[in-house]
Specification:
By secondary structure, this protein is α+β, with helices and mostly antiparallel strands. 21% of the residues lie in helices and 40% in strands. It contains two helices and eleven strands; from the N terminus they run αββαβββββββββ. β3 and β4 form a beta hairpin.
Length: 137
């Protein structure tokens, strides 16, 4: 009987851990198409989720990224300097970035919010675009 109870407790623990490890995903849509991104697990992405859905006017910057301002700043999180096609980041507390090329930024780096599955090449166009960001259920 005791072994059975331990087995059931272990199964419940594994099921709970699996649910907690599931990553949140967002859809980023524009007139150019849509992509899905898996979010990183940090305080900044938790705060971003609380803002959704939202629409952000985005501008092209250095022919490597689309950038736009969030309605308010997000909490600080670990930063890194490198990014790749599909990285979603935060430059400053409220500056949302979608990278469509590989590269790196100067110090202090960017907060990684997530990564577009399959890359963000649909945004590799000059000019502005409005991005709609919403939680994927």
């Amino acid at each position: 009987m005791r072994l059975r109870t331990m087995w059931i407790a272990g199964a419940i623990l594994i099921a709970t851990i699996g649910a907690a490890m599931a990553q949140d995903r967002i859809r980023i849509s524009s007139e150019w198409g849509s992509v899905t991104a898996e979010l990183a697990d940090n305080a900044a992405t938790a705060a971003l989720l609380g803002m959704l859905p939202l629409t952000i006017p985005m501008s092209d910057h250095l022919r490597q990224e689309k950038t736009g301002s969030l309605p308010s700043g997000l909490p600080a999180a670990a930063r890194q300097r490198t990014f790749k096609n599909g990285t979603i980041g935060l430059w400053g507390p409220d500056h949302f970035v979608v990278y469509y090329r590989d590269g790196q930024v100067p110090q202090p780096g960017i907060v990684i919010l997530g990564e577009v599955q399959g890359g963000a090449s649909i945004f590799d166009r000059p000019g502005t675009v409005s991005l709609r960001i919403e939680l994927v259920r």
